[in-house]
Every structure is written in C-alpha cells, then in structure tokens.
Amino acid sequence: MSSTTSDAILERMMALHPKIIDLTLDRMHRLLAALGHPERNLPPVIHIAGTNGKGSTQAMIRAGLEAAGLRVHAYTSPHLARFHERIRLAGTLISEPDLQAVLDECLAANGDAPITYFEITTCAALLAFSRVDADATLLEVGLGGRLDATNVVDAPRLTLITPVSLDHQQYLGDTLTEIAGEKAGILKAGVPTLIGPQAAEAEDAILRRAAAVGAPVTLAGQDFQTWEERGRMVYQDMDGLLDLPLPVLPGAHQVGNAGLAIAALRALGLTDEHVAEAAIRKAEWPARMQRLRKGPLVDAATAGGADLWLDGGHNPAAGIALAETLSRLEPRPLHLICGMLNTKDVTGYLAPLAPLTDRLHAVSIPGEAATLSARETADAARAVGMEAVCAPSVADAVGQIADTAPGARILICGSLYLAGRILRENG
C-alpha cells in the first residue's frame, strides 16, 4: 500500500486527462478489464439517474434498506467535505487505507493512459464494492446516464429516474426531451425501471426509451401516487395505502422523492410500513436546506439573532423547490449569500427566489476556476429584481447581515462546491 495520502493520489489522477468531462465509456471498459471486471462482481445494483433528487432519493433508499437489516454500498458525487463521502462500503464511509489501496491499484492498472478523474475514481469505487460483502449497491449517476461512467453494469436490479430538468445543456442537449433521453440511457432490457414525477416532455422521452429496450416501467402518478395531507405523507400503489410522517428532509419536493424511494423498496420486496417510515425519517443528506448549528459562521450569525442555513441546489428546478421550501418556514427577513459556477443558469436559479429575498450578498467560490465573480452574480440577481451587494467572503457577508439585519434568516446557496467549503470550515 502506498504511503501517499489519498488526496495526493487524487491530485495525480486529475492530470490524466485534459478535460474534466469527456463523455464516453471506452476508457471505463478498458480500465475495468485491466482490473478484472469488478463491475461484474457487485451486490445487486440500484442505478439512479435524474437531474434533481438523485442524492436525496438514494439516501432514503439506503435508510430503508438498512432499517430492513441489509448492508448497503453507496456511490455518490460530488463530495462536500472530503472525497471519502463518495464511497460507502456496507454502510460505512471508506477508510483512508482502503481508499489509498484502491486508488493506487487503479492508477497502476491505468498507467499513463488518458482517463478522466470521475472515470478512474468510479473504477476505484466499483473495485472497493466488489471486495466487501453487502446486500445492495446504490449507484448514483454523475452526469447524464447513457455515457456516464457508472453505466457499466449490464444487469442492475433496478433503474430509477428522478425528476429531469434543464442542467448541463452543453453536454446533454438543449431540451428536456434530449436531456431525458440521455438520462434514460441507463435503462436495460428486462430490468424494472421506476420513474419519478416528470414534466410531460421528459416522461414521454423516458417511456419511449423504456419501450425501445424492453424495460418494464413503474410510473409516478400512474402506478403509485404520493401526496401531502394534513401534515402527513400518503403513499398509495396497487398493494395498498401508507399513512406516513412527512420526510425529515425539508421541502414539498421531497415528498415526490420519498414516493420514488418507497416504490423502489417495495419493488425489492420490502413492503413493511416500518421500512417505508425509516426511509423517509432516517435519511440524512447534507447541504439540502440544512440548518447549520455549530461553527464560527453560526456563532457570527446567532450573535445578531439570525439563523443560518445551507443549500447546494444550483439549477432552475432547484430554485423553484428552494423557494417553495422557504415559503413554508416562519416568515423572517431572508438574506441570501450566493456563489455560483459560470456553467449554470444563474438567473433561472435566482428568479423563483426573488420575491422572497430581502437582499442577496454575492460571493465568488474560493478555489474554483469556474466560479462566477461576485459582481457577475450580483448583476444576475439585479436582473431578476433582487437587491444585491458584493461581499469579499461568506464570513464577511454573515457578519454584515448579523450587524444590519438582526433576526434575519441567512441562506448560503448556489453551489455544492460552495456548500462543501462551508461544511469543511464549520467542522
């Protein structure tokens, strides 16, 4: 085993390809063959694609499986505070020695051949999963589906498509039809697929793909329904009705994600109500409308009577969901601290939030080459009707809000990369 830290090995891996994203499966197949095809030796795979809600849905499925006494591998991206979050082995984040070992092995097998960072680290995850006993493997797509590095398992147990919306158009296409078609590239002949709530255009594209490959479909709104009623969540399918508490993850959109997770668990034969309730009440997924409760930023906010929240959503659909979630909270003056990447639809994300926001404090994201400048984010905010100012850092913005708007609600938002930095700096 290498004495080099996993961070140093990951840094070397960043230099193996000139592009961060280069969608093809050729390099994956080459390296997996060199590693002895670990993707063929995994516990049953649940493969999850979609634009919004992949991580939340995966977290709920994992909570349900674990409540049933099962051991679960899980792969997700990007990480927030440290890379180890991406690989969960039988319920536990991968250890530093184990991570070093699989990264070293993948680097040695690949040599100097071109391969992207996401591809080689996905190979490392699959290698780790193949060597630890578990009952299920949850694979979250990184980007798209058809050509995503996770799409190398020939016969998953289930495939899921969470809500599809406009994002990553430079890679996936300019319309919902094109993007949904790419997401539906994970569907396989004979493998049951569960489709979450979709816009009609996206749903049509996914159903066409399912018919073309021969994938049996379970469709939200048709084969199962989920809704909120009197402060509870109701799930109904052909096997009956469940009266459940609302998901612990906040937001009305999480009711739809919870319905998809429960449908997946029931498709796996886990029909007990306690499994469904555990799925929605025990799921943990940070940086999704997360109330921060410790750390220097929280101390600075509470000194002015403010509360501090964090959300990593970054596309127009996420903006709509976030606005709906905020509208349900006790009314307080709302100040956004926002940093975004230049690959995102900034005005599309901010427009739904404008009617709720007293002021936006724009920041750049430290250490991210693709960050928008604070000025650019502020200009985008003003374009949708927000009052906006620039701040040199998140800490400065929190301090200014605490001093000038006592009792405010402060939400740090706009990017998972910004959210990860906040979580690291606040322990």
Automatic annotation (TrEMBL):
Q: Does the keyword ATP-binding apply?
A: yes
Matching entries from Gene3D superfamilies are given as: Mur ligase, C-terminal domain, Mur-like, catalytic domain
A GO biological process of this protein is:
folic acid biosynthetic process
User: What EC identifiers does the entry list?
Assistant: 6.3.2.12, 6.3.2.17
Gene Ontology molecular function: ATP binding; dihydrofolate synthase activity; metal ion binding; tetrahydrofolylpolyglutamate synthase activity
What is a single cellular component term in the Gene Ontology annotation? cytoplasm
**What does the record give as its pathway?**
Cofactor biosynthesis; tetrahydrofolylpolyglutamate biosynthesis; Cofactor biosynthesis; tetrahydrofolate biosynthesis; 7,8-dihydrofolate from 2-amino-4-hydroxy-6-hydroxymethyl-7,8-dihydropteridine diphosphate and 4-aminobenzoate: step 2/2
Q: What class of enzyme is it?
A: ligase
Q: Which reaction does it catalyse?
A: (6R)-5,10-methylenetetrahydrofolyl-(gamma-L-Glu)(n) + L-glutamate + ATP = (6R)-5,10-methylenetetrahydrofolyl-(gamma-L-Glu)(n+1) + ADP + phosphate + H(+); (6S)-5,6,7,8-tetrahydrofolyl-(gamma-L-Glu)(n) + L-glutamate + ATP = (6S)-5,6,7,8-tetrahydrofolyl-(gamma-L-Glu)(n+1) + ADP + phosphate + H(+); 7,8-dihydropteroate + L-glutamate + ATP = 7,8-dihydrofolate + ADP + phosphate + H(+); 10-formyltetrahydrofolyl-(gamma-L-Glu)(n) + L-glutamate + ATP = 10-formyltetrahydrofolyl-(gamma-L-Glu)(n+1) + ADP + phosphate + H(+)
Spell out the SUPFAM superfamilies in the cross-references. Answer: MurD-like peptide ligases, catalytic domain, MurD-like peptide ligases, peptide-binding domain
The Swiss-Prot or TrEMBL record lists the needed cofactor(s) as:
Mg(2+)
Ranges of residues in domain Mur ligase central: 48-264
Keyword list (alphabetical) reads: ATP-binding, Folate biosynthesis, Ligase, Magnesium, Metal-binding, Nucleotide-binding
Checking InterPro entries in the record gives:
Folylpolyglutamate_synth (IPR001645), Folylpolyglutamate_synth_CS (IPR018109), Mur-like_cat_sf (IPR036565), Mur_ligase_C (IPR004101), Mur_ligase_C_dom_sf (IPR036615), Mur_ligase_cen (IPR013221)
Extent of the signal sequence? none
Mur ligase C-terminal domain residues are 304-415
Family, similarity comment: Belongs to the folylpolyglutamate synthase family.
Give the protein's function.
Functions in two distinct reactions of the de novo folate biosynthetic pathway. Catalyzes the addition of a glutamate residue to dihydropteroate (7,8-dihydropteroate or H2Pte) to form dihydrofolate (7,8-dihydrofolate monoglutamate or H2Pte-Glu). Also catalyzes successive additions of L-glutamate to tetrahydrofolate or 10-formyltetrahydrofolate or 5,10-methylenetetrahydrofolate, leading to folylpolyglutamate derivatives.
Question: What NCBIfam families does the database record attribute to this sequence?
Answer: folC (TIGR01499)
What's the protein called, per UniProt? Dihydrofolate synthase/folylpolyglutamate synthase
Q: Which organism is it from?
A: Oceanomicrobium pacificus
